[in-house]
Amino acid sequence: MAQLTFYGAVAGVTGSMYLLQTDHSNLLLDCGLFQGRREEEEANLKPLPFAVSSLDAVVLSHAHLDHSGRLPLLVAEGYSGPIYMTKPSGDLIEVLLKDAASLQERDVEWENKRLRRAGKPEVEPLYRAEDVQETLKLCQGLNYQQRISITEDVEVRFLDAGHILGSAIVELYISERGVEKKLVFSGDLGNSQAALLRDPEAVQSADVLLLESTYGDRDHRSMEDTLQEFEDVILEASENGGNILIPSFAVGRTQEIIFRLGELYQQGKLHQQAIFLDSPMAIAVTEIYHRYQNIYNAEDKAAIETASLTASAKERSLHTFLPILRYSISTDESMALNKVERGAIIIAGSGMCNGGRIRHHLKHNLWRKQSHVIFVGFQAMGTPGRALVDGARYFKIAGEEVIVKAAIHTLGGFSAHASQTQLIEWLGHFEGEKPRLFLVHGEENAKQALATVATTHGWRPHIAGLGEKVKF
Ligand SMILES: [Zn+2]
Ligand SMILES: [Zn+2]
């Protein structure tokens, strides 16, 4: 008998982690950070709920920190076996985990200054850069479709999940005394309307299926409407002469926005003089996207090729598609943008404006009525981004209050996750006897809504609880 235990992404979407125990091996599927409110993040400090020394292998669905962010902790606790993932995920986690470690080290340094002054004992970061280095040494990159044996009785195969570069649907084949059982983990499934990536691959069979439910309760606004609104705002800004700020996450959304701006440029609809990508991390990620253009979807790959005819095959990229794209890497380059009063589009992090270079651009642009801010991603409650979306009249930065006169736009249609309709469509590819379906990675109401719709399609979904065990 194989046994699966749900250790994360059960109440909510973060902390993705599942333990698979077979007759001969123990395997961890994802090892993500809990993210969100302080109380939720405290769960990261708890000891891992299994013996690290008993693990034979780790399999990672994709690079996002809510799936990968506790890997260095696992390694710091003594794990030294292989960590399997797709090749692009291997490149992306290097950027993401290094950034996570430096943020944690910086936070703790700050906290310790306070603790020292109070005469209290100092605290340690969750993990350090050295732990990330050790983690990266254990990573093994596989190609999509490549089926390989990873423990005595388990084989793995990654299929494209179309969510971010390198994201995978994980198939685990377990052999048990001559009988094969198949566990499928959807990972995070992509939105088939999104740019650059392919649609999530279809799976026809499984014994046990774990399905993400992030958008289990809703559909996205149509991509057509979203792109039309994007085009309108950009035109309006070029007519009234202001800058456009786009707060954006480094992985995925930034590259999608660059591609969409490239489409407008190619159609002669972009009149701005320059687009600045002002985020060292987003630049590093965009360069990784360039390295794997061969796995973009056929249509977008063809659009880039057609627009880049004078460039050699090697040079073709988002840069030849959008030639006015500039990278600003150093702090000086970023500061120089403060002097640009018109005709620029600045893409910078963080996506919810709670840190990063976007904050100084907001300071220099929000008070001008000709400026525009376009939100292209989800804004969580309590973040500065959410306050701006909700109509805040002042923006507080470094003790200074800046009046908000800029036009604030929210484009709801960009999403890296499959909508409810797309999730149900993906389930529709299964043939014959339906697998046991477990809904994970979603807020309670999203899972409930998805369960209701899946039931009408003949499924018997189960919403897994934390620590729940399933034998199959
Ligand atoms: Zn994800
Ligand atoms: Zn996720």
From TrEMBL:
Residue ranges of domain Beta-Casp in the record: 254-388
Every Metallo-beta-lactamase domain range: 14-238
N-terminal signal peptide: none
Xref: CDD domains: TTHA0252-CPSF-like_MBL-fold
InterPro entries in the record: Beta_Casp, MBL, Metallo-B-lactamas, RibonucZ/Hydroxyglut_hydro, RMMBL
Classification via Pfam families: Beta-Casp, Lactamase_B, RMMBL
Keywords noted in UniProt: Hydrolase
Name this protein carries in UniProt: MBL fold metallo-hydrolase
UniProt organism field: Pseudomonas neustonica
Lineage of source species: Bacteria, Pseudomonadati, Pseudomonadota, Gammaproteobacteria, Pseudomonadales
